[in-house]
Amino acid sequence: DGGITQSPKYLFRKEGQNVTLSCEQNLNHDAMYWYRQDPGQGLRLIYYSQIVNDFQKGDIAEGYSVSREKKESFPLTVTSAQKNPTAFYLCASTLKGNTEAFFGQGTRLTVV
Amino acid sequence: ELKVEQNPLFLSMQEGKNYTIYCNYSTTSDRLYWYRQDPGKSLESLFVLLSNGAVKQEGRLMASLDTKARLSTLHITAAVHDLSATYFCAVDPTSGSRLTFGEGTQLTVNP
Fold it and tell me: Are B97 and A99 in contact (CB < 8 Å)?
């Protein structure tokens, strides 16, 4: 079945640690996105990538980093510079020229 | 900067009643999307509206788009408990670019 897989589903981070969230898609989609969702709020764009080896900052990129070495994969690293990382992180993908986004199941990150 | 505003943000309604959720946006667009999110879950695509006057219906939900008014509506007919969820609209200001989401409308349907 085609889809977007995020892992892990739950992640706990200690203060000062970097953690990496995985996002893989087998939909042959060109563009991939990372969103952050805080409780009771909408989605805010962190980073997005429309082609391999290229990505752009979204609205809240500070404290995050990404890479896009393969079309299928768009991992997100939450660095120690992100002071309030506890949130629900959603990865999405779209076909080129078509912005209907398909979402993964999300990763819930908690700082302990 | 594109702004997308939904109202109401919270909606509590009785089963069997009708109601409309509104999505206003600030710049020209002819592409608008509606998503549903259940608590603790991801987003599920409901409707894709790609032109002025577009209307889509699925079960008790109907979505429409008026690009001149920069307004989309999500109408709920004879609500049932299973419709309880948060509904998001999202707008694409230019073809093939990033989506901007509204804040979401948290709908609770009471028996």
Answer: yes
Are B50 and B31 in contact, with CB atoms under 8 Å apart? yes
Residue B53, judged by CB atoms within 10 A of its CB (0-12, 13-18, 19+), counts as exposed
Q: Give B32's contacts in chain A (Cβ within 8 Å).
A: none
| Token output for B95 | 């073809």
pLDDT in tens, A39-88: 888 899 999 999 999 999 999 999 999 999 999 999 999 998 888 999 99
pLDDT, tens digit, 9 for 90 and up, residues B11-60: 999 999 999 999 999 988 878 999 999 998 999 999 999 888 899 999 99
The answer to whether B25 faces chain A, any CB pair under 8 Å, is no
A50 CA to chain B: closest CA distance, Å? 9
